[in-house]
Amino acid sequence: MRGIMAMRVGAGALGLLGVIAWHGGGTHLDVVLALAGAVVIAVLVWEGVSRLRHGNEAAEFAASHGWEHLPRTAAYSTRFSGAPFDATGSSVRQEDVLRGVYGGLRCATFTHVVERQHDGERSAAQLYQVTLAELPVLLPRLDIVPESLAHTVAQALGGVDVEVESHEFNRRWRVVTRDPRYGHDVIDPRMIERLLQPDAQGRSIRISGGAVLTWTAGREGVGTLAKRLDVVVGVARRIPAHVVRRFSEGGGSLVDDAPPAGPAWATTPGVLNSRRYTGIGADADGDGVEDWRQPGERLGSDDEPR
After folding, report:
1. Is 70 exceeded by the pLDDT of residue 180?
2. Backbone angles phi and psi of 56, in degrees to 5
3. Domain count, the chain
4. Whether residue 148 sits in one domain with residue 224
């Protein structure tokens, strides 16, 4: 309803300015300029309504699932490197941050906003929806890029391409890291199996800064949150234990930042901090609560980091 209202407001402003310019004795150039101004107004109205709707959905989700909602922060602005965090502007922030436990891991999703100003005028903001799962250790950066984006993205990442024995994986993904040994250690058969599942296809995935994250351009609402969390949590839980142990022993442990203790329904994998099925996630086993895993995928010791 609000989106329709925004369209009506923008269209009304466009038509009104055009009529005023025409009947006011303006030239065709005046009409064109008036219409261009109306288009700008419509875009601004649409963006404002979209931001409001997205924020309301996030707040409602947090209230019903026991998650934390931060309307605005800059806590993630300098934590990560690479796209989309390498974009600079006069204002860099995160909006509508949702944080909670999913699949036994602390997770977050937020809209990363980059705004620029030129000659005192603010340009349209760049928006990215980032979703991440926290890790218990700081790991070196490793990018898993869809092969379809390799030509335009991989060169900017630096590092070395890592190929594995799976032809299907190499056909779909480009893995870039500065340490080939580390890349081969992380992309083991269990990780390959997870990344070949349909929900991971086409997503850029990164391990960096104590987290596994993925992102898309624009805002993405809570309707797809469970699917995004499935991907980052699934990747995080398949990082081999010997990799985690090696870097923990090297001084990269983040165990003090582990999720706080809570009731079983709030910390057990498969529950989005709700004691009932809400339709947000998939109820694969029919037990009445969301399952973070894919239908048919077993949950057990094999899902713990090795």
Report:
1. yes
2. -65, -40
3. 2
4. yes
